[in-house]
Amino acid sequence: MGRWIAAVQKGFGKKLIRLHSWNAWLVALLAITGLVLVGGFWREILGEGRVWVRWIHIIGGLALLVPVVYYLFLASKHWKQIREKPNQKMNVILVMILLVGWIISGILLWLLRQVGPAVANTALFIHDLLTWVGLPYIIYHSLTRTAWLKDPKKRSIRLSEDAIAKPASVPTGKAAAVTTKPSSAQTPSPFYTRRAFLRSVIGIGLAVSVGPTFIRWLGSSLTTGGGSWEEMAASNPNKMVPDPKPLPASLPPEGGGAQGEFRVYTVTPIPSFDNSNWSFTIDGLVDRPQTWNWEQFLKIKRSVQVSDFHCVTGWSVYKNTWEGIPLNDFLKMAGVKPTAQTIKFYSGDGVYTDSITLEQAQLKDIMVAILHDGKIIPADLGGPVRLVIPKMYAYKSVKWLNRIELIAEDHIGYWEQRGYDKDAWLPDNLS
């Protein structure tokens, strides 16, 4: 084993340079794919390609294990080289914490179904925190340190004492006339080098570009769900009149309100509605197709339920108090024809659709919701009306719901066309 490690450590300096280069490319790949995955703009542009981006991100995260594990075999020799350099020691420790933290939290998110929502929510927060804090630093580190290691005057890797004591003999003849470069002791170093200037520019650029986004993310992550909901409600572009009056069971919401933070994902720009452009329809293979305007819709008998809300990307919001009309009530009002097999849901954005079977629709907690924790649902979160299917992942809970159609054939929804599971059942540890 000792011989094998010695063989691995041979050419230590060049291998350390390559490690920094590999690390820089992998982190850059993960940064780009990660930002694409959370960006609403890219969700619409990429469509089905987003599923491939997700897998590239997962594979890239697993590949990050390679330089981390490889470095462990070089660590003992590297540590000796920097034993008298506390700043470099701290840098190594910080980089390893970032890389290992990313890898572990990413794997936990990948294994959401196995680890459960409590662990996944914590892993998601840690993954995001390490990203916003560590990504600028590790990009800066990888870019500058790769060049730094190539400079023999700066790197900690030195020639052995034998090599210093016994320099190679200088050949005679014309080659002997070649003059040697002056040593660093003979050449005064400038007060502020070009490399130092570039490092500063990179560092300042990363801080300016990433800093404000991180501050906004940290603020939303540390506040309660009610605070963020109130902010979205205050800027809600929907102008529906009158406001629905919550039932006594909605206020105060059970358990004090929803626990967790919603993340806003859309495939189109967020639409807005008012009384003039909003209606709700149930049609297709039904005996009594019906359409309601907003005032009529508010007169339909409502009920209240408390349920958890789980996104396939790894986050959850617990104990949501939803108020609305059970889906089965709409089916009874319309009368389902024997030839109907599928219920198709339409979003008011004009693009998004999804579906469930009539058998799946027998679940009693599927609701067409108009209130959350006793308050209107803002446009960012799918209001004025959204579907809620607690036992399925949230991409089935269509936002801005304005039409239900009963059809005889199967229907593949927006995200199912792009690689998601058609039956979005939660695993046993979530449902």
TrEMBL record:
One of its GO terms (cellular component) is plasma membrane. It is found in: Cell membrane. GO terms for biological process: respiratory electron transport chain. Keywords: Cell membrane, Membrane, Transmembrane, Transmembrane helix. It is a multi-pass membrane protein. Residues 14-141 form the Cytochrome b561 bacterial/Ni-hydrogenase domain. Residues 269-415 form the Oxidoreductase molybdopterin-binding domain. The chain crosses the membrane at residues 21-42, 54-73, 93-112, 118-140, 196-218. This is Oxidoreductase. It comes from Paenibacillus bovis. One of its GO terms (molecular function) is electron transfer activity. Pfam families: Ni_hydr_CYTB (PF01292), Oxidored_molyb (PF00174). The keyword Transmembrane helix applies. It comes from the Bacteria.
